[in-house]
Design goal:
Blueprint lengths: L8 E2 L4 E3 L8 E5 L1 H7 L2 E5 L6 E2 L4 E7 L3 E5 L4 E6 L2 H4 L3 H4 L8 E5 L11 H8 L1
Antiparallel strand pairs: 1-2, 2-3, 3-9, 4-6, 5-8, 6-7, 8-9
């Protein structure tokens, strides 16, 4: 059974989004379910800081020993940070998908968009 932290929001494409921080940003990563399905992650292609995300559009790719998968933006916003540690250690996505394996930090165009994402219970039902 996958680990599905209750404090996060989720997408049908298996991305997670943290709660809005005091500085108005969120972190985005892939779920435990996704990393397990992907297998050993060997490369992550992420957008540039300052880039714009459009909800449901691809913002990068994640490559594993099994396949290459698109990463989909859960919300509209501006990329304010990327996890540069993944360049040298992409396998961190497998070992710690909700912690050190985060992908990007985003300043949402509209914080209300976060309400359109799935709760942990909804995501669990989706992946059951």
């Amino acid at each position: 059974m996958s680990n599905i932290p209750a404090e996060l929001k989720y997408t049908k494409e298996h991305e997670w989004v943290s709660a809005l921080t005091a500085d108005g940003t969120v972190r985005i990563g892939v779920t435990d379910h996704a990393q397990d399905a992907l297998g050993d992650v060997v490369y992550v292609d992420l957008p540039e800081v300052g880039g714009t995300l459009e909800a449901d559009a691809t913002f990068g790719e994640i490559e594993s020993t099994k396949s290459v998968s698109d990463l989909f933006a859960p919300i509209n916003g501006e990329v304010v940070a990327v996890n540069e540690e993944l360049e040298a250690a992409p396998e961190t996505v497998n070992s710690d998908p909700y912690g050190a394996g985060w992908l990007i930090e985003v300043r949402p165009a509209d914080a209300a968009d976060l309400e359109n994402l799935m709760s942990a219970a909804d995501y669990e039902a989706e992946t059951a």
